[in-house]
């Protein structure tokens, strides 16, 4: 039997390991990264720019806060439908079930078989000891009552034999 489930598989994470925090459907792709802004190259020894005195109108214009504008219209985000969410989780659950089934089968046909055989052997041994104890106890009780009867009959026979020997003329 080929073992398809062990090829190129990472171990199953434990339930106390946090894989991804937050909602899976709202997660960003790890491959889509925002481009890093390019820093203007300024030589180390360059002098700082010095402000020149200007008129109040020029100063007000220079320090005026520009009106905020959007660079582009935000695109409407379509929320996933419950059917899509179910299909996503169902596919993940099916894959997980298949991996667990494969691992359980491979364990039961390998190391698990030895564990099961040891437990069965220990249970059979324990049960056999219990049966031997029960049979020995019952045989002991039966022999005890029989032995009383045998001893009584042997004593009677011996007394009868002595009584008959004592009455014989040649004794």
UniProtKB/TrEMBL annotation:
Q: Which InterPro entries match?
A: DUF2486
* Compositional bias of kind Low complexity: 36-51
Pfam families given in the database record: DUF2486
Domain of life assignment: Bacteria
> Annotated region Disordered: where?
36-61
Q: What is this protein called?
A: Uncharacterized protein DUF2486
Origin organism is Paraburkholderia eburnea
